[in-house]
Amino acid sequence: PSTRALAAEIGVSRLPVVLAFELLVAEGFCEGRTGSGTFVAAAIRPRARPGHPAAGERGAVSKGRRSVSRSTTRLIRPPAPWLLQPGAFRLGDAAFDHFPLTTWKGLAAQQTRRLTAPDLRYADSMGHLPLREAIAGYLGAMRGVRCEASQIVVTSGSQQALWIAARCLLDPGAAAWIEEPGYWGVRDVLRSVGAEIVPVPVDEEGLQVDRGIARSPSARAAFVTPSHQFPLGATLSATRRLQLLEWARRRGSWIVEDDYDSEYRHDGQPVAALHSLDQEERVVYIGTFSKVLFGALRLGYLVLPPDLVPAFVAVRRSIDLTPATFPQAVLAAFVREGHFARHLRRMRALYRERRDALVEALHAEIGPEARVRGESAGMHLVLELPRGTNDRQFAVLAADHGLSTMPLSFCRTGPGGTPGLILGYGGTEADSLRSAARHLAELLKSG
Amino acid sequence: PSTRALAAEIGVSRLPVVLAFELLVAEGFCEGRTGSGTFVAAAIRPRARPGHPAAGERGAVSKGRRSVSRSTTRLIRPPAPWLLQPGAFRLGDAAFDHFPLTTWKGLAAQQTRRLTAPDLRYADSMGHLPLREAIAGYLGAMRGVRCEASQIVVTSGSQQALWIAARCLLDPGAAAWIEEPGYWGVRDVLRSVGAEIVPVPVDEEGLQVDRGIARSPSARAAFVTPSHQFPLGATLSATRRLQLLEWARRRGSWIVEDDYDSEYRHDGQPVAALHSLDQEERVVYIGTFSKVLFGALRLGYLVLPPDLVPAFVAVRRSIDLTPATFPQAVLAAFVREGHFARHLRRMRALYRERRDALVEALHAEIGPEARVRGESAGMHLVLELPRGTNDRQFAVLAADHGLSTMPLSFCRTGPGGTPGLILGYGGTEADSLRSAARHLAELLKSG
User: Fold this and answer.
1) In percent, how much of chain A has pLDDT > 90?
2) For B37, left (φ over 0), alpha (ψ -120 to 50), or beta?
3) Which of A105, A128, A230, B247 could disulfide-pair with A328, CB 3.0 to 4.6 Å?
């Protein structure tokens, strides 16, 4: 139809119709022929429009034809009820109400005022230099990790750091040791890069290096949490540390040290990072601010052997170019001006108090048979359950009662092993921990 | 030695020595025996300390034993001189000095003031809901992309969106079409996930779908830039759009539409996204704020067919859990309050002016034989060079003269094809573009 006729037919002025026709011509769906009007483009007419399937036909598209990659299928799992809503014991919650929010907001406001046009550019793929310098200073003073800013790559939390390390160090099919039980995020990462997962059991001294060597002597990497084994809480013993480093040296393998929460050690002296013993530059060290500051910040880092820096930067660029500048600038100021160290000191005291309250309450409510593990550091502990208990079933029940306990079996690759519950105490006040422990004991007795 | 003797020997008080001994015991390097003192732990003594290699031995560690994964090796490349320092024509630079920084700072300050403790928690893996809602509103109104917030996953720029899509849709070895020439970041992503790269040539109508079908009919995915082909600038024609959708429907393949800068169309009507024609939910749509706002923001997004959401969320969680909340909250306010649409309008006018200045100057300086392509949209155009010119060599020379031109061959997977230079004009003022064009013409004549 002519633009005039169509405008009259649908009751609008002629201008929008003219514009619509121009658009159809611009996109190639129509072509204008001078003097005769606008027509459906010749190139399109003969071809049937795709889509518009009958309702039945659409439903008939086979599922297989909408498939995603196999590595992805392995990653999909239903949401875990114990992580869904906030509740006592939820892992990953910190004492957010004790965070120095006013100080943080002041620094954020200051960094906001200082923003200028050049700050808007794509930034350094390794991360904001002032933050990397602040991290290097902190690690040297507090964790025995000696490094330069030029060895540090800022990441979006420790999860991205683990992923980059896995992608960088492992070819598909390459074997990697993980701790059993261990952090499920490492399993996800290894599945994502197609590595072969070799679970190595842990005991009171941490990873059983002998068993790792027996199962997969030539694994390309070992992913470990030496300072505070997740979730059982052991500190990797000196003997095992040296044994692990020696294995890596002899085999040309890599050690990925995830030092996720060792800032909070409640009993005994702080333990230096495995990295500090590594004289062969075989250790990739990972730290994070998500646990000790707050999860929504999403900032962690890798400390790399200098010769691995170009490879890690290449992987980082391939997945997301660079981290956003602004949050890094605020965090750098927070560390540099001493607020971070001060916050750690305050939180260490607070978490120790919460830990004491929880351990005491568990023993009081459950009785002397309550077996608590891994309470000497961090923001969580493990309560072992009687053999034969289905800890997943129990955790689902507990979630219904507002208790966000994580089943220990969730951290295992296979069946077997002592059942238990991982109880976070970072985000729950001492009084609430006591009543939650009472509630938990009741559920355990009635279950 | 006893703590007292050692303290005297090194001339410090006894307390630090006692603490040091306790630490050595805590870490398992020493053991205390009541009444007789502190000794090196039995478990450690017999084993030779690793490390401490003689200088020669250390250098002798073979390179192969410090190897990274093959997929990583393929990603490492020397830094490109044309991206190293700021200079006229640099790709990815926007008109940062025209960004409404005061407005942005005001919103950032407002969001900072509103921060409360619950905002510190780990956030939604799909992204901040208010931002996803703002994106859905914007896409429906401006890009013809109809979607709900529940189909949107916020990413760290379009690079992460491309990576997640590739990992989610492609198994190692699966074939994927890419545009030739095309965006190098897609090649990096496909190498990273181990996919088979199938370069499909582009012409004035964009991707030559016929050639793609001839080369790899059962490719699992096609990565395309239909609105403004990178780098040559074609708009994918209507015929090709329908042909591509029909291929995907018939083969059960996926189309990843990277709509990186189509907000800026200078000539003719804006072109709707390919996504708007997709009735089979075969298109994964990617947008980004890095080009239209600023690179340091690092925020992009995926628009997904609803049935693919769980798979994409699983991959996103495996690589970095969630995006940081704060920058998303500022951006959501910026979009919601109309600043984004206003900024786009102002920038469209500005970039058109810069584009006009550059095209005019290139013709004036080089002469009528200057062949300019892809100038009808975006923030860059392509200047073709005479056949036989080595565009990389020329770009290195130009970089020495402060001109950051990118060689067209950098966007190709193999040799051949017309040589050319990609000239960004987003971050360079009209006057500077004119003098840079003169400089470029001189170099071309003398080269």
Assistant:
1) 67
2) left
3) A128
